[in-house]
Amino acid sequence: MNRKAHWITQTAVLLAMLVAVQGLTSALGNQFVTGTLVNLILIVAVSLGGISSGLTIAIVSPFFARIFGIGPVFWQITLCVALGNAVLVLI
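-> structure tokens emitted (91 positions)
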């Protein structure tokens, strides 16, 4: 399989998992469960796909959450969440 296609597929599947987890756990109303699972997926993404995959998911996922109505109310907070996720991935 082409290396680039593998990276795109892996990143897309992990991003879809992350958005699904956000959607499913938002109904619980418990931020700790959602945040822990999101961080777990970010760590798995950087472990499996490397820094580029982890950063892509870390930056894009809060905006998808905002678009789907499960993210922060204000766009500025969404940007801060994306930057915080990126810091986690880089560490």
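Helices lie at 3-26, 31-49, 51-67, 75-90.
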